[in-house]
Every structure is written in structure tokens, then in C-alpha cells.
Specification:
The protein has 428 residues and is of the alpha+beta class. Helix content is 32%, strand content 25%. Strand 2, helix 2 and strand 3 form a beta-alpha-beta unit. It starts with a strand and ends in an 11-residue tail after the last helix.
Length: 428
């Protein structure tokens, strides 16, 4: 089959790579892609958030399946246009994508479906926000209600900072969701859905803060690893039973069945599993680690989901290896990233055993050099028999790559390697 992948980032590069390895997929295209994706498959420079442009390209290519990567095209209704035209699409409709596009909507769905999550208040002005902050106390959790590319959340013990973030959201015309703070380690679980049925992928953990020791501002993610050996037994089964399936049933009941990836952002607290947030697509950078371990051909699974036939899809098989990916970001990210620097060492990194480099914010200059064109530029994926070996491989790849101002964390998956992640006893 022919597959068209929509999106420009590292997540899309990982999806393209997995699809290219699928023996049933004869052709992969990507729009708009990036410099790394363009080295692997044909790319098309269209506006990924324009449903008409995506539909026209899918028709021109005679695509058997369209996979929508980022959240913005989903919120713009790209899937709706493709569904209306009868083209199988992996990615929820605009109405179903509200699970990510509106945190207030997601809270409403979770309440109706009795999904365990943090208590929350929706605030529309300063007084409501101040009252909610006082109700919950520190640490304060303030979330922009709309899409913010993973950067709309502030967690702080400083009440003034929390209120300032809320006011910035109000000034931009938005509302905020203020929540109780959830203790315990965080987990990302991607669940492939076809509206009724669901198949979980391997859990991963990502690292949001820009600096080591989880310091500095939030980013879209600075690295990830999978699997998570420290998780309680039956963790995935419990998430499916208490979170994924109730959410799917509630969405179907509302007349907006969910097809695509239900990204469950979870906290493993002393009171059990709690949903931090839902996303309506693969997470970045977790996808780079998760798909590096998937042995089952990806195309057939995504097509089965798009056609509502996931219960007939083959069982997922996973490599016994561990995957770690480390993001290298541009100078001054996550503020205004410095663009245009020429990247060196990519071939050397890719030549290392058990290492591959996924491109995100890259493009090509007039001389054919690969240059920095975004905030998070690359994700270097390392595979190994255990976390120590996978980390060693990933960081060996990072060491080969350079440009002026490049920055990356040195501690991705380090606590897990050292056995320092503590999970509260879930049996109490």
C-alpha cells in the first residue's frame, strides 16, 4: 500500500522509518517533512493544516492510508476532509481531537467516563484563578486550555508565577485549567484506537524540562526511553480497563468516536493511576523510542485502526532491546531558537552500531547543507540490551553531532538506570 504521512517533525520521521520497514508498504510520502525525512522518502511542501491541500495531495498520490502526525492538522479538520472523501485516515476527527485541543473538554469526558484524574477548576479570569490556586495550594498546576505544543503548563510553588501564567493565557483570549498536583512518576502510554477497539503500545517516559535534574522551563520534550521496567505488574491492563476503554465508550456515546492514537499522560501516584492529560496523537519524543522497538509491521496496524478493524489486526511484537532517545535542541530553545547553523556529524552518528538519528527542526540550505530550522532539532536513538547500554549508544551518537549553541540533557533515563524511580505501593 501507499502511505502519506502528514507533519514536519521527529515523530513523523520515526513513523516514516517504521512504515518504510513494513514489507506491505510499497511507497511512503511525507508532507511537508524535513531534511532527514527527505533523505528517506519523497516529501511534498504543502500546508499540513490545510484540509483541502492534504486531500488534493492524497488523491494525487492515490494514497491507501494517510497518517496525521501533529495536533494542529487534527484540530484544523484534516481527518474530516479525508474521511468525507473516503480515504482511510489514521487520526481523529476535529470533534474527537478536542480531547487534546481542549483540556476542559477532556476533563468533562473523564468525569462522565469515571476516569481517574486530578481534581480541577476551569478559570476564565484572575479572581477565579486566584480562588482555585488557594483551593488546591502549592505546588500549583496551571494549564492553558488550548493547544500549546506541550509548553502551556506551569508547575510551580510560586503563587505569583502561577497567577502570571494564568493571566497570560487570559490575555491571549484563553481559559485555564487549574489542577491539584499529582505526585509520583509520569508515564506516557500510546493506545491505538479504531473507535471501539484499542491496542496499547509499550509505555515510555519523557523529560519535559530543558535542563538536567528536571530544571528550567517546560519544552516539547528533551528525550525519552522505553520500556519501563519499574512499572507495577498489570499497569497497562489497568490503564486499558480504567482509562482507555471508558474514554472510547464515552466518545462513541457522544457521537464522536475516536480513531487514532489516544496518548494517555499518566501519573503513578500513591492513590493509584491518574490521568494528567490526553493527547490525540503520537507523542514526541516518546514515539522515537517506542517505534524503534516495534517489530510488528506498523502499516497494517494503522490501516486496521483507520478502517475500524483493529480486533482483526495481528498481535504486537516487541524487540527485547531497550531504546533511549536524546533530543538535541537549538541555542536559546525553548524561547526563540537560533536558526540557520550548519549541523555536522550526522553521518558519523548514523554509522554507529545501534544508533539512528531522527530529524525534527532541520532543513537544507542553498549549498545542500543540513541546517537548524526549529527548536528541537534532532533525536538520537540508541538501542541496547539494557538501559545502561541504550544510554551509552544514544550519548555516543550525541557526541558526534555539533553546531554552535546545540544543547541537550545529559541525564535522560539516568534515574531509571540507577534504579532510583520510586513507585508507591498500589495494593494499599
Amino acid at each position: 500500500m501507499k502511505v502519506l504521512v502528514i507533519g514536519p517533525g521527529g515523530r513523523e520521521h520515526a513513523i516514516v522509518r517504521a512504515l518504510s520497514a513494513d514489507p506491505y508498504v510499497k511507497e511512503v510520502h511525507c508532507a511537508p517533512g524535513n531534511a532527514g525525512i527527505a533523505q528517506d522518502v519523497t516529501t511534498h511542501n504543502i500546508d499540513a493544516q490545510d484540509p483541502a491541500a492534504v486531500l488534493a495531495l492524497a488523491r494525487e498520490l492515490a494514497s491507501d492510508l494517510v497518517v496525521v502526525g501533529p495536533e494542529a492538522p487534527l484540530a484544523a479538520g484534516v481527518s474530516d476532509a479525508l474521511i468525507e472523501a473516503g480515504i482511510p485516515v489514521f487520526g481523529p476527527t476535529k470533534a474527537a481531537a478536542q480531547l487534546e485541543a481542549s483540556k476542559a473538554f477532556a476533563k468533562n469526558v473523564m468525569a462522565a467516563a469515571e476516569v481517574p484524574t486530578a481534581m480541577a477548576h476551569v478559570a476564565t479570569n484572575r479572581d477565579e484563578a486566584a480562588s482555585a490556586l488557594d483551593d488546591f495550594g502549592a505546588p500549583y498546576v496551571v494549564k492553558d486550555d488550548g493547544l500549546a505544543a506541550g509548553k502551556g503548563v506551569v508547575v510551580t510553588s510560586d503563587r505569583d508565577e502561577a497567577l502570571e501564567h494564568a493571566e497570560a493565557c487570559f490575555a491571549a483570549g484563553g481559559t485555564v485549567v487549574i489542577e491539584e498536583f499529582l505526585d509520583g512518576p509520569e508515564v506516557s502510554l500510546f493506545v491505538i484506537c479504531d473507535g471501539k477497539h484499542a491496542v496499547p503500545l509499550s509505555p515510555a517516559q519523557d523529560f519535559k524540562r530543558i535542563f538536567d535534574n528536571d530544571e528550567g522551563p517546560n519544552t516539547g520534550g528533551m528525550g525519552a526511553y522505553s520500556p519501563l521496567e519499574w512499572l507495577p505488574e498489570n499497569f497497562v491492563d489497568e490503564v486499558m480497563e480504567r482509562v482507555a476503554y471508558p474514554t472510547l465508550r464515552e466518545m462513541e456515546k457522544r457521537g464522536t468516536p475516536f480513531t487514532g492514537v489516544l496518548y494517555c499522560g499518566l501519573a503513578v501516584t500513591k492513590r493509584g493511576i491518574r490521568v494528567i492529560e490526553f493527547n490525540a496523537r503520537f507523542g514526541d519524543p516518546e514515539t522515537q523510542a517506542v517505534l524503534a522497538r516495534l517489530k510488528t509491521p506498523l502499516g497494517g496496524v494503522l490501516l486496521a485502526a483507520a478502517k475500524g478493524q483493529l480486533d482483526d489486526a495481528e498481535q504486537l511484537n516487541w524487540s527485547p532491546l531497550t531504546a533511549v532517545d536524546v533530543v538535541i535542541a537549538a541555542e536559546n530553545y525553548p524561547d526563540t531558537p537560533v536558526k540557520g547553523a550548519v549541523i555536522s556529524g550526522l553521518d558519523a552518528a548514523n554509522a554507529l552500531e545501534n544508533v539512528h538519528v531522527m530529524h525534527a527542526g532541520t532543513s537544507t540550505d542553498a549549498d545542500g547543507n543540513i541546517i537548524v530550522s526549529g527548536g528541537r532539532v534532532l533525536a538520537v536513538v540508541g538501542l541496547g540490551d539494557d538501559l545502561a547500554a541504550a544510554r551509552k549508544a544514544a550519548y555516543a551518537g550525541v557526541a558526534e553531532i555539533s553546531w554552535d549553541g546545540a544543547q541537550s540533557r545529559t541525564d535522560i533515563a539516568l534515574k531509571a538506570e540507577r534504579g532510583e524511580i520510586v513507585v508507591a505501593d498500589q495494593s494499599k
